[in-house]
Amino acid sequence: MKKILLAVTAALAITSCSQNEEFEAPNQQTKIDFTSVVRKATRATDTNSNNFLGFTVSSYITDGDYSETGALGAAYMDGISYTKDNAAAPWTTTDKGTYYWPSISSGKKVQFFAYPTTEPTSYSLPSTGYPTISFTVDGTPANQKDLVVAHATNVTSESSKVAGGTLTLDFKHVLTRINFAFIPDDPLLTYAVTAVSIADIKGGTGKYSFNAGDGEWNLAADATSSYSYTVKQSADKVENKNYYSLADTNASWMLFPQEVNGKVISITYSTKQGTMEVFSGTKKVTLPSDAKWAVGQNVLYVLTLPAGAAKVGLNTEVSEWNTADEKEETAK
């Protein structure tokens, strides 16, 4: 077993090799092995070291660096799946052969594409360009799942992520995670948020392409849905923040990356001064013209809720799965 790297470790022997490729001399042959890393996750149903129990990998050998306009050709590793019973168990596969790295002198490179075995509905390789997988976002937020993929390009046995023949596959999140919080405009009042929703969001089944960088999604324009947030208002402010969470970590929406300019968030809440009700109703926030959900981002909408009839303010915190930065926006 290789040294554990971050979250997930896999020591994998891979099947037989083609006869028409150039490989190291027998006394120099280096077997292709893997370790796999899942980027940091904070939602309980995110893919992480405890629940990442199966993935499938395909690879292709190219003459030098691969260009998106070229053809990958026949698979070298053809959809080989690996599983384990629990986080502490070893990875296993029904495949018993061995693959080897092409010799450095051949100038050949290996392209790797991996994804969770149980999530995508299909894997497809077009005549030119990168492979694709299909994925369906559940219409019920509580049932929505995370999706991670790995794409290693132009790899040789001497690449920076290869050590002793072992390639580290870096699995990254490719959906967008959405959460909500609120700031009381009048902290002397008692606020009770009962519902948060957003309308006209692309859902259903999308196709993800393993393009260079973060990849890209192709979504059906007419497959739109409304999503309701499971509100669980915290009694105390989030640590080191000035806002209150509106749900626990399981309530996150896991949705397709997409343009969301002009989309409307609806918030139903009430305010009280002692036992006297000051406001009860639903307010709306329209997302600004540059609003976009990107691949692998956390988006936290912090809603500033007025005591009564004034407009709702919006502060958007946007971050990658592992890093954070903040920007402020004002709803019209």
UniProtKB/TrEMBL annotation:
<feature type="signal peptide">
    <location>
        <begin position="1"/>
        <end position="20"/>
    </location>
</feature>
<dbReference type="InterPro" id="IPR042278">
    <property type="entry name" value="Mfa-like_1_N"/>
</dbReference>
<protein>
    <submittedName>
        <fullName>Fimbrillin family protein</fullName>
    </submittedName>
</protein>
<keyword id="KW-0732">Signal</keyword>
